[in-house]
Amino acid sequence: MRLFALLFIPIAVSGQRAATFEGRPATALANEKVELLTLNQGGAFASLVLKDDPGKMNPMWNPIALARMTNGPSRFGSSLGHFVCVDGFGPTSKEEAAAGFQGHGEAHRQPWELIADTRDGKTQSVTFRAHLPLVQEMLTRRIELVDGEQVVYVDSTLESELAFDRPINWAEHATIGYPFLAPGKTVVDASVGRCKTRPYENPPGKHRLVSDEPFVYPSAPLKGGGKVDLRSIPDAPDSMDHSGCVFDPARRLGFVTAINLEHRLMLGYLVRREEYPWLQEWMNYPSNLALARGLEFGTQPFDVSRRQTVELGKLFDTPAFRWLPAKSKIGTRFLMFYTRVPAGFLQVDDVKQENGELIITDKKSGRTIRLAASLPL
């Protein structure tokens, strides 16, 4: 009888399973609230959906689907959804390019090996590892999901294989896209103030904003005079701009959120400012509605070369790169959440984590959203 009882003890198993996204192998991590798909090649968070959403709206940027929609080619390769740019964020120097180093670093092009799939009580996790051969670094990323929560926790470690200290570039290229990102229907809020438009010489494409100009978010200077509210997506999109903003130095945790007001859905991130002091917004608004907006939190204000960030040093008294010591590791941790918002909830003034909850506030409407978030940040 004792042996019989042991055989029938229920064993908790992880919600991880093999999946595909746009024909690419992926790993699904799910609970009863949300499902996240992570690509096995490059580690991008390609899809995040609410399990009870009949439309299964995915806020993440999908350039493959947008290319189908516009009958054009997809020119972004392994870049989609939320991918990590490490070690590198932006273009390379001519010498780096000649050595085979490409823009936005190696991590989003490398195979990600699934090295752990575990459950500890209510918490399930998967851990990936990617070797970055050109910069001689190892990236390890653990993704956690707690039963009953619609919050994803992401913990990463970058290890140097070299015997000298080096400046590194690291950004989370979190990107939302159409149809979640829609003209007149989507708004973006963040705990930022001091910002600057990206400097351009002979800028490509159609830029609305003045080059290399400081401003206070969300009111940015227009080339034609006046200012524009960057929270909103233009009703007649036909432009592409970048802004770099420093997360509020008075806060330990910074936030950035995007709300689709029509579908009343919100994607958000809460990050440690000491690890990700900057938010770059890539506002790619072509007239064919293949829209993308990067909510890119990282170590530098703009996606420019390593040499340029080191030469910049600081902006707004905030460092523009991070050191990776010799034969050592550095880490980061952030969380992302996806939720419905109540009617009348139109903006985000604050996101904080207290007593095992995320508390998301719209002061104008007086409405507050509370989400279970039991793991500390």
Give a verbal description of the structure:
The chain has one domain: Beta-galactosidase, Chain A, domain 5, CATH 2.70.98. It is built from four helices and 29 strands. The chain is mainly beta and 377 residues long. The termini are far apart. The longest helix is centred in the first third of the chain and has 8 residues, at 63-70. A hairpin with a 4-residue loop joins strand 19 (253-260) and strand 20 (265-272).
Secondary structure blueprint with pairings:
Blueprint: H1 2-7, E1 17-21, E2 24-30, E3 34-39, E4 45-50, H2 63-70, E5 83-86, H3 94-98, E6 113-120, E7 123-132, E8 137-146, E9 151-160, E10 166-168, E11 170-173, E12 175-177, E13 186-190, E14 192-197, E15 214-216, E16 219-221, E17 227-229, E18 239-247, E19 253-260, E20 265-272, E21 278-285, E22 292-298, H4 306-312, E23 314-315, E24 318-319, E25 322-324, E26 329-340, E27 350-354, E28 357-362, E29 367-372
Antiparallel strand pairs: 1-2, 2-3, 3-4, 5-11, 6-7, 7-8, 8-9, 9-26, 10-25, 11-22, 12-22, 13-19, 14-15, 14-18, 16-17, 18-21, 19-20, 20-26, 21-22, 23-24, 27-28, 28-29
